[in-house]
Amino acid sequence: MPLQSFQNSAKEYDTRLIEADFSKSVETADRINTAIANLTDNRISKLVEPADIENSNLILTSAIYFKGQWRTPFNPKNTRREKFCDSNGVEVGQVNMMYIRDTFPFAKIDDLQARVIELPYGKYNRTSMLIMLPEKGVSLDKMYSNFQKLTLDDVFEVLKKNQEEFGDDEIDCYIPRFKIETSLDLKSSLEYMDIIDVFSESKADLSDVSIIHTYVSKVIHKAEIEVTEEGTTASGVTRSDFGNRIGAIRFEANRPFCYMIIEKITNTIAFGGFYQTPTLY
Hints:
Blueprint: H1 4-12, H2 25-39, H3 50-53, E1 59-66, E2 80-85, E3 91-104, E4 106-109, E5 114-121, E6 127-134, H4 140-147, H5 152-166, E7 169-176, E8 178-185, H6 187-192, E9 218-227, E10 249-252, E11 257-263, E12 268-275
Parallel strand pairs: 1-9, 7-10
Antiparallel strand pairs: 2-3, 3-7, 4-5, 5-6, 6-11, 8-9, 11-12
């Protein structure tokens, strides 16, 4: 039974508490999954399995879903099936490749060995997708290793300077339509960061949480991101004609790349991942 003070604190952080009989694993898993489905508009409907409940004491769950509305949408009529290659240029599959021609912040960053483009979401430019595409022949791991020597502010500073020096770049932009789901048990990651005692039955001190001695058994997290043509304005206003017309820079994400969803006010990475296994979504 959670203490009332803890319940009040949890509400301040928009955290939901579910009291359940863990001996009824199927029923409890259903209750948790129903709550998650309600909170994510049924985008994420299955976060835990009955096996996650069995022999558990306290479970922390987290689910997050992102499908932004582009400031300028891609025209679905321009989406075509195209090949997707590995970093060496060998075809490894096909994707539904979206296309738009518009002005975007863009730069070739030598320290990254990559091309970088920023695609804004929404009317107020509070969120954007940053795509870092390794140069041909450069592996995704190598590029990301380069990125770890920099900061996100460094990348945005290069984009800003490039824009100030050359103006807005008109880009022929090609990116795959995709949806990625990731499920993780964060226990090992937290333990790597020296958050250990809370997972120990003998060492955990959660006396501010419950009058009954308890400890955290699992930390289950699921993230889902969907990238489609949809935007904040009618698709009829987007540029058309699939192709690389004269005068535009070509940015073609047809090989492994890194993507990040950025909250622009604080330059915080809300989502991030690698796209390297092509799917026809």
